[in-house]
Design goal:
The complex is a heterodimer. By secondary structure, chain A is of the alpha/beta class. Chain A has helices spanning 11-19, 22-42, 46-65, 67-80, 91-103, 116-120, 123-129, 139-146, 163-173, 183-200, 226-232, 253-265, 300-304, 320-323, 326-331, 342-353, 355-363, 370-374, 381-393, 412-425, 428-441, 466-486, and strands spanning 83-88, 109-112, 133-136, 203-206, 210-212, 217-222, 236-242, 246-247, 272-276, 290-296. Chain A has 22 helices and ten strands. The model of chain A has no long low-confidence stretch (mean pLDDT 94). Classes of the chains: A alpha/beta, B alpha/beta.
Chain lengths: 487, 221
C-alpha cells in the first residue's frame, strides 16, 4: 500500500489545488462550522473558560518545567506496575523498536487505535514493509486507510470526505457491502469489518492522551470504544507517546480532560476514558498480558531547549486551533503536507522535520490570532510563528541554540536588499537623492510585479518623495502663517 | 526483552537536562461542578446520561431490581447474557434472570470466552465502582469479579449503581478515594453508549462498543 504523499515543501501548490477543489472546500466548511459551534456551546460561561484555560496552562507549564524528573518517575512507576518502558530518539528508532516488539511475539496481525504519534513515525507503512498487517480501528482512520490517505484533521481524520465518498470507498473495498448512504449503516459496516480484525489481532497499538507520572497510568480519551478494544482484546498492548504528554499528578487529569473534550468536539466528556495501569494481574481474566510504553522524542527536545518554543509542547492535541483557522478551513489538512496540520502543525512540524522542509508553513498565516484565542492551554501561536519566520531566515541569536534547518530559507537577494536598505537609511543625503530618483523611475516599473500583483493591483506610487511633500507643505504653511500674522 | 535502548534514553535525558526550566509561580485551581443537594446531583447524573443517549431507570430500592431486570429482558427479548462471578449484584442477576435466558458467568480466561462474547452475547451486566454527577459518568474498576470486556463487547451493557456511589465531579472522586495511592490495572469511565461522528459529523451509536447502555440507579436501600 503506498499512501498518497503530500509534502510541506510543496505547500503553495498543494494549497492552490485544495482551493480549487469545491467538494473538499464544502466538506471542510461544513465540518469547521459544526465544530466551532459545538465548542462555543460547551463554554457558555466566559469566566469559567478563562479560569479553566489559565489552570490548564499552569498545569502544562509546571509539568514541562519538571519534564526530566517526571519522565524518570513515570518510567519507574510504570515498571512497578508491570509496564515495560522503551525510549526512541527519532521516528526510525521508534519504527524499529515497535517492529521488534511485534516480531518478538511472532505476530503479523496488529490493530491500532487512533494515534497521531504513530502517524508521525509512519508506522503503518514500515510494518507493512515487514509483512505485518496494521489495521486502523478508529472509524475515521479506517476510512482514511482504505483510501490510502493520511488523516486531514487530528481529531476527525476523515473530515475531508462526505458520506457519498465513504460509501464509494466501502463499495470498492468491503465484500458484500450493500450500497447505502445511511451513516448508521455505514458505521455498522465498519463495525462488523473491524470486529473480525479485533478478534484476530495479536498486538494492539494505541497512543496516549495523558501519562501520569504519580501512578504510572496511561490515559486514553475516545468515543468509539476502538481504543478499549485495542487495549483489551489482543494479548499485547503497545502504547506510543511523545515525551511531552506526561503529567505530574493524577489530580492534573480532570481539568485537562475536561478542557480537552470541550475544546475538541464540544463534549463535556467523551464516552470512554480508559486508564491503564498495567497488564492483566492475577487473578484477572482479561486484558493484555504485556503492556509496553514507547516514549518518543523526535525533535521535541529541540523545542524544549528554548523557553519560548517550549510552549509548543503544552499542546494537548484538541484541534481547536485548526477548527478556527481561516487558512486551515479553506485549504484543509492535506495541503500542509505534515502529520499535524493547521496552526499547531505550523509550530510543531519545524521541530519534527526541520525548518528547511517547513519554512513555507510558518508564513502561511495572516496572524489573525484566532488560534491563540481558542487554545485551551494558551499557546501563543502567532508569536511563535513570527519567531520561526525569523529562525527560517536568520542565524540563531546569541545564547540561543540553533534549530534544525535554522536560516535555511535565507536568500542572498533578500539579505542583500535589506542590508542596502539599512545602509541607505543611515546615510540621509544619499537616501534623499536615491528616493528622488526612485520616484521618477517608478512609472517605468513593469505592470505585473510577480507574486505581488498576482492577486493585487500594482500600487500607484506618488510622484514625489515624502520628504519633498512635507518640505513643500511646510513652506506653504510658513507663508500662510506669515500672512495670517500680519492681518 | 530483546529491545534494549538505554542510549536513546540517555541521549534524550541529556538534551532535556541541559535546560533549566522554571516552574510557573502562579498556581491556580479550577472549580469543578458541585451539587447543592443530593437530588440535584442525581438529576444532573440522569440528564447527562440521557443526553448521551443512555437509558436511565431509577428504582426506589434494591428489592425492585429483580423485577426490573426481568421486565427489561421481556422488553428487549434478550436470549443470552453474561455477568461476573463475584460482583456486588451477580447473585441478583442470577436469581432474576437464570430462568428467563441463558445466563453465563465470566469464569474462564477471556481467550476461552472470546468467541461467545463477540458472537453470541446479547447483553452483559455489571455493577459500578462510582458515578460522577457532573458529566453523567459510570466509573468501573474491572477485576476478576467483573472483567474489562464485560462493559465493552456485547451490543448492550446494563450497569447497576447505588445513588450513594455518585459524587459531584471527577476531581472529588480522585481525592476522596485516594486514587493517587495506586490504581487497579484498568479503570474506565463510561458516559453513554459507544458512538462516532466520523462520517460527515453525523452521530451514530454502536461504533465498536455497546450501542445501548442501560443504567439502573438504586435510589435507596
Amino acid at each position: 500500500m503506498s499512501v498518497q504523499h503530500y509534502y510541506p515543501s510543496q505547500f503553495k501548490q498543494q494549497a492552490s489545488d485544495a482551493l480549487a477543489n469545491q467538494t473538499l472546500r464544502s466538506n471542510f466548511r461544513g465540518a469547521m462550522d459544526y465544530l466551532q459551534q459545538k465548542r462555543k456551546d460547551a463554554f457558555s460561561d466566559p469566566q469559567e473558560l478563562a479560569q479553566l484555560r489559565e489552570h490548564a496552562e499552569n498545569i502544562r507549564q509546571r509539568c514541562l518545567s519538571k519534564l526530566p524528573q517526571l519522565l524518570e518517575q513515570l518510567e519507574k512507576n510504570c515498571q512497578a506496575n508491570g509496564i515495560q518502558v522503551h525510549w526512541a530518539e527519532d521516528a526510525k528508532q521508534a519504527q524499529q523498536l515497535i517492529a521488534e516488539l511485534i516480531q518478538s511475539q511472532g505476530a503479523t496481525k496488529v490493530v491500532k487505535g487512533k494515534s497521531m504519534v504513530t502517524e508521525e513515525i509512519e508506522l503503518n507503512q514500515h510494518l507493512e514493509g515487514l509483512g505485518i498487517e496494521c489495521v486502523e480501528s478508529d472509524m475515521g482512520e479506517y476510512i482514511v486507510q482504505l483510501a490510502k490517505e493520511t488523516p486531514s484533521h487530528i481529531i476527525m481524520p476523515a473530515i475531508h470526505k462526505n458520506k457519498q465518498q465513504v460509501a464509494d470507498l466501502f463499495k470498492q473495498h468491503i465484500k458484500d457491502f450493500d450500497y447505502t448512504l445511511s451513516v448508521d449503516k455505514l458505521i455498522q459496516t465498519g463495525r462488523e469489518a473491524l470486529r473480525t480484525k479485533f478478534k484476530q489481532a495479536e498486538v494492539g497499538i494505541s497512543g496516549v492522551n495523558f501519562a501520569v507520572a504519580e501512578t504510572g497510568t496511561l490515559c486514553l480519551v475516545e468515543n468509539e470504544g476502538n481504543g478499549r478494544m485495542t487495549t483489551t482484546v489482543p494479548p499485547v498492548h503497545i502504547a506510543v507517546t511523545g515525551i511531552e504528554k506526561v503529567v505530574e499528578f493524577l489530580s492534573d487529569v480532570p481539568p485537562l480532560f475536561s478542557i480537552l473534550t470541550r475544546s475538541a468536539t464540544g463534549q463535556h466528556i467523551t464516552t470512554y476514558f480508559n486508564m491503564i495501569s498495567g497488564p492483566r494481574r492475577a487473578p484477572e481474566r482479561d486484558g493484555p498480558s504485556e503492556v509496553h510504553l514507547v516514549l518518543l522524542d523526535n525533535g521535541r527536545s529541540q523545542a524544549y531547549a528554548d523557553e519560548a518554543l517550549r510552549k509548543t509542547l503544552q499542546c494537548i492535541r484538541c484541534g481547536a486551533c485548526m477548527n478556527h483557522c481561516p487558512v486551515y478551513t479553506r485549504v484543509g489538512g492535506h495541503a500542509y503536507g505534515t502529520t499535524y496540520p493547521g496552526p499547531i502543525g505550523k509550530i510543531i512540524s519545524p521541530h519534527l522535520q526541520g525548518l528547511a522542509q517547513t519554512s513555507d508553513l510558518v508564513t502561511a498565516s495572516s496572524l489573525c490570532g484566532a488560534c491563540e484565542e481558542v487554545c485551551p492551554v494558551k499557546i501563543p501561536i502567532p508569536s511563535l510563528l513570527q519567531r520561526l519566520r525569523h529562525d527560517a531566515k536568520l542565524p540563531a541569536a546569541e545564547q540561543t541554540p540553533s534549530l534544525k534547518g535554522q536560516a535555511s530559507a535565507a536568500s542572498w537577494t533578500e539579505h542583500t536588499a535589506w542590508r542596502m536598505w539599512a545602509w541607505l537609511s543611515t546615510h540621509p543625503s544619499i537616501y534623499n537623492w536615491a528616493m528622488a530618483v526612485g520616484v521618477k523611475l517608478a512609472k517605468y516599473l513593469p505592470m505585473p510585479m510577480g507574486e505581488w500583483t498576482r492577486c493585487r493591483n500594482k500600487p500607484e506610487l506618488a510622484s514625489q518623495t515624502f520628504h519633498q511633500t512635507m518640505k513643500r507643505r511646510a513652506s506653504k504653511s510658513v507663508t500662510r502663517s506669515a500672512t495670517g500674522g500680519a492681518r | 526483552m530483546a529491545v534494549s535502548n538505554s542510549s536513546a534514553k540517555q541521549n534524550i535525558m541529556q538534551r532535556l537536562a541541559a535546560v533549566s526550566a522554571l516552574a510557573p509561580t502562579n498556581q491556580t485551581s479550577a472549580n469543578a461542578w458541585q451539587a447543592s443537594s443530593p437530588e440535584q446531583a442525581l438529576a444532573r447524573f440522569e440528564q447527562s446520561l440521557v443526553a448521551a443517549h443512555a437509558d436511565v431507570i431509577i428504582l426506589e430500592n434494591a428489592k425492585q431490581l429483580s423485577a426490573c431486570l426481568q421486565e427489561l429482558q421481556q422488553q428487549h427479548q434478550w436470549q443470552t447474557a453474561l455477568c461476573g462471578e463475584g460482583g456486588e449484584w451477580s447473585e441478583v442477576f442470577s436469581l432474576a434472570l437464570a430462568e428467563h435466558l441463558q445466563l453465563n458467568h465470566f469464569l474462564q480466561p477471556f481467550e476461552q470466552l472470546k468467541t461467545a462474547l463477540f458472537e453470541s452475547t446479547d447483553v452483559t451486566f455489571t455493577g459500578c465502582a462510582a458515578g460522577i454527577a457532573d458529566t453523567g459518568t459510570l466509573v468501573l474498576k474491572p477485576s476478576a469479579d467483573e472483567p474489562r470486556s464485560l462493559s465493552l463487547i456485547a451490543p448492550c451493557h446494563v450497569a447497576v449503581i447505588k445513588v450513594s456511589q455518585i459524587v459531584d465531579n471527577f476531581s472529588q472522586l480522585i481525592s476522596e478515594q485516594h486514587w493517587h495511592k495506586g490504581l487497579p490495572s484498568n479503570v474506565v469511565l463510561i458516559s453513554g453508549p459507544s458512538k462516532t461522528a466520523d462520517i460527515q459529523q453525523t452521530l451514530a451509536y454502536g461504533a465498536h462498543g455497546p450501542s445501548q447502555l442501560i443504567v439502573i440507579v438504586i435510589n435507596g436501600e
